[in-house]
Amino acid sequence: MKPRLKDVRGYVTQRDVAWRNLMVATINAGIEQRVFKLRHSADVWNYREVRTYEFQLPRRRVVVHARDIDHDEIAFHVMVEPDATGERVIASVPNRRLLSFCTAAAFGWLERKEGRWLQRARDRLFLTSKGWQLRELEQLHAEPLGYKDRGKLMM
Q1: Structural domain boundaries enclosing 98
Q2: Spatial distance between the Cα atoms of 77 and 23, rounded to a whole number of angstroms
Q3: How many structural domains are present in the chain?
Q4: Distance (Å, rounded) from C-alpha 78 to C-alpha 64?
Q5: 74, 66 Cβ separation under 8 angstroms
């Protein structure tokens, strides 16, 4: 029997695995669309510059607000199936309120200076009120394209 992703990667809960999968899919889409590069020195971003992009998961539209946060990190605010208001307020609404405008939301950071990995704080960085959304994202197959799916939180 093939081990489950959360057993292999160290993500423990269903919510952790769903967050990981959504964030990996988000970063992969940004790389594939050439929104940013994994090597900080190869990317030309101004400090605090914002880039918005979108991609499609199976049957779900995802909108991403990516922002250079200095120290060669990129912060991601991700909304699954946002409504029109959600697309406008993605970066300005407090995290918990984002669920008013989408079915799921996630937040994370990509470290690019000391190495390349997805960072996660201990706060609630994945929000959904829909059980089906949690299960769907937990089952999503997403493998990192040239970076690690977890690493030390750099603050």
Answers
A1: 8-41+51-139
A2: 9
A3: 1
A4: 5
A5: yes
